[in-house]
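Lab notebook, bench 4. We co-purified these components, and the gel suggests they stay together. Before we commit to crystallization screens, I want a quick structural picture of the whole thing.
Request: model the full complex, all chains together.
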Amino acid sequence: MASLKDEVLAKLAAIAAPDGQPLPSTGKLSEIVASDGKVFFSITVDAAQVRTWEHVRASAERAVRSIPGVQSAMVALTGERTGGGGAASAPVRPTAVPGAGRPAPAAAGRPHGHPGHGPQPAGPAGIPGVGAIIAVASGKGGVGKSTVAINLALALRDLGLKVGVLDADIYGPSLPKLLAIKERPQTSGGTRLKPIVRHGMPVMSIGFLVEEETPMIWRGPMVMSALTQMLREVDWGNLDVMVVDMPPGTGDAQLTMAQQVPLKGAVIVSTPQDLALIDARRGIAMFRRVNVPVLGIVENMSTFICPHCGTRSDIFGHGGAHHEAERLAVPFLGEVPLALEIREKSDAGLPVVASEPDGPHAQAFRAIAARVREGLQVESRPAPKIVIEA
Ligand SMILES: Nc1ncnc2c1ncn2[C@@H]1O[C@H](COP(=O)(O)OP(=O)(O)OP(=O)(O)O)[C@@H](O)[C@H]1O
Ligand SMILES: [Mg+2]
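Here is the predicted assembly.
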């Protein structure tokens, strides 16, 4: 029995490109991701030819949808500017965020050499109107990046900064849940997306654009294109800081951010135990490799304070991240206790900094935000060499 992917290719063979060639022979198709009745792929063409390809895209999408068993098909048309700098892909269909562009060219990213040695190639283009972009990251999943990202953003907002939040975790977006957002973003001026505004902050997540049940199967180039579009094709307005909630790991998404976005710095989240710290170390090493300054480490799920008796217990240990920060010569930004309230509020779409602005947990995030703001004003320090244990 032919696989769904083969069926898609067979259907596409009946569609002619503007020059008459069958679509699969043009070399312009991305990897076809087909799973559970959902099909995603993109067509990447020269930016000047985008208009002549739109009907091909539409026919391809229709054809794929007509395959029995296909519940949804999303085909993105991406215009690639040849020889230009900055944002190389110009998506022409605002709702087609999961489109595949070309992989981020390493040469267009941050210099990988040693800072201060010879002329530096130009870094990635900024996002007009957006000041510092900071990534909240960790090597390990589930350590509380998203919780820290949203509360840090709120605390920075309370320091008087204009803050936006981008959920770059396209594998498992968290913002819709963390902020209880059900609505979909509208388009603005026909080609761009308007972010959703919550707590006075523009926020954007791939989770606003796809159904919750949609399996997040993304291949490298698709990850890059989706991120690039969420960064560059959304009306962020004027922001002092954009907080980016990263997916776990040190893979394509992180490298894309570092290569395509002028990241001002990274905040690394870790729980106190050794295993998480090893992953945090990997995260730090990755950002350093792409010359993104590490603003510091946050120890999350630190000391547990019993809500009934007030007893402190160090469930995952305590102080490990602080110690690690010293060892790696990066600032320690502060600790956030393991607290039932933080989890419950997060699950209810009410981050503690917004829902209990004067409570002790909000205070913890405010202290971290103050240090992050401080870190954003100082120049990056030369990074000492670190060794990563396998
Ligand atoms: N300090 C804390 N106290 C109690 N629960 C917490 C705390 N921080 C995070 N959590 C809970 O832990 C779970 C994981 O947190 P979160 O989603 O922020 O982690 P993550 O690192 O973003 O995960 P992923 O790697 O899947 O993106 C959530 O249920 C969250 O509410
Ligand atoms: Mg997360």
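The radius of gyration is 22 Å. Worth comparing against the SEC data before the next meeting. Confidence is low (pLDDT under 50) at residues 82-121, 378-390.
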